[in-house]
Amino acid sequence: MSTIPEFQKAVLFHEPGGLDKLKYEEIPVPKDLADEEVLIANKYVGVNLFDSLLRSMEQLPSWYPATYPIIPGFEGSGIVVKVGKNVTKLKNGDKVVYAGSSTFTQYTKVNANSVLKLSNDAKDEKLAKYTALVSGGLTSLCLTNEAYELKKEDYVLLYGVGGGVGLVLTQLASKKGAHVIAVASSDEKLAAAKHYGAEFLINHKKEDILKRVKEITDNKGVQVVYDSVGKEVSDISFESLAVKGTWVIFGFASGPTPPVNPLLLFQKNAKLVSCTLYNTLTSPSAWEHYYDEFSHVVEKDGLEVPIEIFPIEEYSTAIAKLEGKKVVGKLLLEISS
């Protein structure tokens, strides 16, 4: 095992703004680990839209635990190079994937509970695959099991199906026997959704979403809307619901969902719920349960998404492509040693 350096390179931003605010700078490698933490030498990290949303905010959300400078990134994979004294399930040299924060670095420290050990012979292709799937996979399992327990023959409305979470959700829903109504901004993204099991396709730049949903469901509406878009589709989401339908909010790509009058839900006996990964995975047993489920759907059910990899030095190009809505699948950054 090579010596851990004193300094590392990281992508970060010191203030809100555009792509020009992202910098590639030298920062210290974390030295002190908590008893339950591990230090990971990253090989791949995932690029997420939330990183861009966070950078655009003039004021950070009260629930976000970091202060400037902020290092983007919420998942990664690599090799364990240091372990806290209470960590028993991981050791130096283990190949792993993890969900965490501040991952656009050469080295990331993270709680060991949020780390999934991979086989010692795992090749780079497997590390990349698991990195591309881990956040979207865990989130989608939470959405389809806890936020709303998806059932066979349910009609499901999904937005943003061209991205990593959208394509994972499409696969999980279709494998459960649900009828997936996929919404995206391009025919290319919809073709990917169809490949992964979507039954009905709506290009929102060409078609009226609500009108098509009503046609598809014979005016009955859908049993569940999984809404990662927020502001721009809030009215559509509610109007698309069937009686006793469930509206699940788990993102706000277009801005926060406007306040909803609870009396509105009376019209359909509807439910409004939210789901965030880190409010679901709040205990070691929860992490273990969901990682078991995640490993099963990857290895046994063949869960996958298209992957495009950029070297971390080209982070600006990768993020610009994501923000330009030109990505089908998942973008990764490969970390130089």
From TrEMBL:
Residues 17-333 form the Enoyl reductase (ER) domain. GO terms for molecular function: mRNA 3'-UTR AU-rich region binding; NADPH binding; quinone reductase (NADPH) activity. Pfam families: ADH_N, ADH_zinc_N. One of its GO terms (cellular component) is cytosol. Gene3D superfamilies: Medium-chain alcohol dehydrogenases, catalytic domain, NAD(P)-binding Rossmann-like Domain. It comes from the Eukaryota. SUPFAM superfamilies: GroES-like, NAD(P)-binding Rossmann-fold domains. The keyword Iron-sulfur does not apply. Keywords: NADP, Oxidoreductase. InterPro entries: ADH-like_C, ADH-like_N, ER, GroES-like_sf, NAD(P)-bd_dom_sf. PANTHER family: QUINONE OXIDOREDUCTASE PIG3-RELATED (PTHR48106), QUINONE OXIDOREDUCTASE-RELATED (PTHR48106:SF13). This is Enoyl reductase (ER) domain-containing protein. It comes from Pachysolen tannophilus NRRL Y-2460.
